[in-house]
């Protein structure tokens, strides 16, 4: 599956190119930026509230120097949700072309998670709340357009396939 879209963010126009393939394939001229996980705990997905941006989203964030995508997603999910990744599979990635021409790769991952304990705080202080929601209710919290819709749909398909194993 491959999709292309244009979207507005903070008053600027960006172009997205979504591909369902391992994010390490064909790195090209992209700059690794951030990872996001569609995390399932039971039959619910985990979303996080960023109090600085005043927005809900999927857990995730920037990669640290020397980190792989897999290391970054496990670390970010732990930091932002206090949950452990029990299982992960890569959905694909979105390359975002910024107004200045810079291309940023945003890998997306399907994860099964379980809590270490109660959520207390994100070390960065950005994430102040987590919620477990019905997967189809995500658009009430954030809208990532056609690419976001496909990411959630693909994660739900992967979840259904994972439960049959």
Q: Which labels suit this protein?
A:
single chain, 165 residues, 19% helix, alpha+beta
Structure description:
- With 165 residues, the chain is an alpha+beta fold.
- Helix content is 19%, strand content 45%.
- The chain contains two helices and ten strands.
- It has helices spanning 69-81, 145-163, and strands spanning 2-9, 12-19, 31-32, 34-41, 44-50, 55-57, 60-62, 83-97, 103-115, 127-133.
- Strands 1, 2, 3, 4, 5, 6, 7, 8, 9 and 10 form a ten-stranded mixed sheet that branches.
- Strand 8 (83-97) and strand 9 form a beta hairpin.
- The longest helix has 19 residues, at 145-163.
- The chain is globular, with a radius of gyration of 15 Å.
State Rg. 15 Å
Distance between the termini: 24 Å
* Helix percentage range: 10-25%
Described by the principal axes of the CA atoms, the overall outline is globular
Number of beta-strand segments: 10
Largest sheet: 10 strands, mixed
Structural class, judged by helices and strands?
A: alpha+beta
* N to C succession of SSEs: EEEEEEEHEEEH
User: How many DSSP H or I helices?
Assistant: 2
Global mean pLDDT: 90
Our estimate of the beta-strand percent is 35-45%
